[in-house]
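Lab meeting notes turned into a lecture example. A postdoc, R.K., suggested we walk through two folding results consecutively so the class can see how the record format repeats. The first protein's sequence and structure tokens come next.
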Amino acid sequence: MACHTSGKDAPNGIGPNLWGVFGARAGARPGYRSSDALASSGLTWDRATLDRWLRGPIQFVPGSRMPMRGLADPGDRRAVIAYLRSLE
């Protein structure tokens, strides 16, 4: 949560606000300038896409800017995805 906000009306932080991200087009958050790589990826944030992203963002979408190594543990990724799904 150091980089992202998650409240319905919260502003973007260093990273985009995560409210309503599940089911949204990747790289298209209002008021946030995503990397060209993510914006042109054609991805939608569904369960499978988020799992791959959380496993290793830079490896999944080369040229993206998410400075995170990734979550190796599938249970940790499932927990984050469940949390993101709840933000709607």
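The second example is placed directly after the first for contrast:
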Amino acid sequence: MMSNRGWQRAFDDPIQLPDDRTLVTLHDAATYVTGLPKKQAAEPEWQAAIETLMLVVELGGPTMFARIGVMKALNRGHVREFNLSRKEPRWGRRKLARDR
């Protein structure tokens, strides 16, 4: 059975913020979100993060949901790029048995 400590529940993996602070508990994340400027907190990503934080606390769900919501809000402008230099080259194609 999961221990329901409300806002004092810790994330499975702490969230590292860009300013080198770390969010360890749900309370830390809620304090960070409530400290955001109103314009930034009104963005849809932050609204979703706030909602997931509240649902995890109220319903006792897994903290991973709240972590995902906060991480998506923190990284909302980041676009992942595919790096071709990391891909291993394929030095030839496998031959089918019929072609041997």
